[in-house]
Amino acid sequence: RIIVVATNNKHKLKEIKEILNDFEILPSSAVVDSFNPEESGKTFCENSLIKAKSLAEFTDYPVLADDSGLEVFSLNGEPGVYSSRYSKTGKDEDNLKKLIERLKGKKDRSARFSCCMSLVVDGNVIQREGYVYGRIIDRPIGENGFGYDPVFVPDGYDITFAQMSPKQKNAISHRRRALAMIKEELERIYG
Length: 191
Ligand code: ITT
Hints:
- Homodimer.
- The chain has 191 residues and is an alpha/beta fold.
- It has one domain (2-190): Maf protein (Alpha-Beta Complex).
- It is 30% helix and 25% strand.
- It is built from five helices and seven strands; from the N terminus they run E-H-E-H-E-E-H-E-E-E-H-H.
- Strands 1, 2, 3, 4, 5, 6 and 7 form a seven-stranded mixed sheet that branches.
- It starts with a strand and ends with a helix.
- The structure holds inosine 5'-triphosphate (ITT).
- Inosine 5'-triphosphate (ITT) binds at residues 7-9, 12, 39, 66-70, 83-84, 95, 113, 145-149, 161, 173, 175.
């Protein structure tokens, strides 16, 4: 039950390992030296498929790719597929700054995290999407997680993803919701 994950993001890899804990998860470096396909898609599913297919060229193991991001409703879905490259530097800290700036004075601060997982197995493609809804606060709080976690408060909670333990975040995240459905398919394939 080996799966290769097509990501360069170590935080994603850690969460995927925690969620798919009864599979053996390998990083892309297990099958290829460097891996950096151009994410030219307009949707999370297009981009995760680009990543999964391009790594699948180097291995016969099943390949899983995650494309994800934050969509803020009053900003017409920004940063969306540009979440990791929202600011000029693309650093988490600068991305957060830009988002907080863009939301200044906006009443509607509702948002969602989206994740599209693409799984390539024996040339077949399986895609599943997961979402978690919440709101964006006006300053970062919390040390855990990555990316926009310090400003995202999921519905039904009064703490950010970055204030949650990995276990708490992984129980309700967009990534978890997409992976729960991928897991069903994997169980069906592998038994
Ligand atoms: P790979 O393409 O190598 O997988 P990446 O970080 O470039 O890594 P994406 O293009 O999918 O991945 O961008 C995802 C960005 O969305 C990520 O860098 C964060 O800024 C944000 N994001 C996604 N999931 C998140 C989460 O669980 N918590 C906080 N931010 C998240």
